[in-house]
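User: Fold this; tokens only.

Assistant: Input:
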Amino acid sequence: MIKKSKKIIGLGFVATFAAALIVSSSAEAKSDTPQNAEKTKLESYIKFTQILNLIEAQYVDELNASDLVDKALKGMLTNLDAHSSYLDKKSFSDLNVQTSGEFGGLGISVGMKDNVLTVIAPIEGTPADKAGIKSGDIVLKINDKSTLGMTIDDAVALMRGKPKTNITLTVVRKGESKPLEFKITRDIINIQSVYAKKIGEDILYIHVTSFDQKVAKDVKEAIAKDANRTGIILDLRNNPGGLLDQAVGLTNIFVDNGVIVSQKGRESSENAEFKADPKEAVTKVPLVVLVNGGSASASEIVSGALQDHRRGIVVGEKTFGKGSVQVVMPVGEGEALRLTVARYYLPSGRTIQAVGVTPDITVHPGKVARDDNLTFMIKEQELKRHLEGELEKVNGKKDEEVKQEKALDITETLEDDHNKTVITEDKIYDDAQLKSAIDILRALIITNKPKEETK
């Protein structure tokens, strides 16, 4: 049996050697590569074929050549970098559904960081966000399957599924003594990417949750709607990225000239520069940008470009560090390669990949401490009314007040509607990063005023 196997290996080796020789000779005719490099390439082809044939003939379970080549390709692409991968027919089909169809999911963006599956960010309002998944969580298990050694594509395929079906994620979180389990119900992911709210009488707060095809347009509309605002906070926290042209378009709203981002690859055809169009810039008001570890890809392009152009102050925590360009290249029937072909570079020439964007001012998340006793410091003219109210708590409510409570539901509804457009003081103090951004922006607004307006 062994002799027969060796014979098979020998025949396979001869056939593949001939094929490799033809490929190598063809490549040599078209290439200026030195002969020793071609010799090394040929030896590598032969080595690969030898091992392939050995596995096919001797492995304990029967495998055909097609299966082995697929496994080899998956391993090869995975070992190039965290974002390259081989897509078999099922994976390629799933990718097409993800980018063009309706599917059930969690609303979570994941990436490989230090070779482990890490949450870049949950998207606001999605099942993952509502369940309590956080940026920086390490996904240890998906249902009962360990993620150690799992590719991003395999992980995404497991997390995606029919709406209203359940999935359990086991995550490791910094500061927690043991892994946490989250049972999440999949749903159709419909994302609102731009939220605009008011802070006081002077600041416009714009939260961009992901970069879909309407981000630049929606942000322009939000600014036009509140054109009287003298400062803007652009919140890119937990924004996993999206379309490059929208990142360029969003930056262009605040920057009227110069390079926004460039990409450089091995092939000159992959090199490109994306510059600001003066006609697309709409505002020059002071700007503060909020980022954190969940800000990735397009978010890093925007925050890094604004930082390099000194157009805004970046506040928060260091970003994720995803600055590479992938293209999907169909190969064969229904299969493809997702291959990293270039890296992004910011206007100053620095890279984002594995480095991220470091804020100008680092602020960690948390609440802002404040003295609740200060709420009792009321003005003299309000003192009598306040004390009367305290007395009523002891003696009972007035009849008129009981009647007024019938309208309480309407009042609460109005307050809820108000909170959709205005950030309240309580929410500001619950978010230390936002509070710092507001304070910094107000200082910028003051220093940006013409001298005659300064009092």
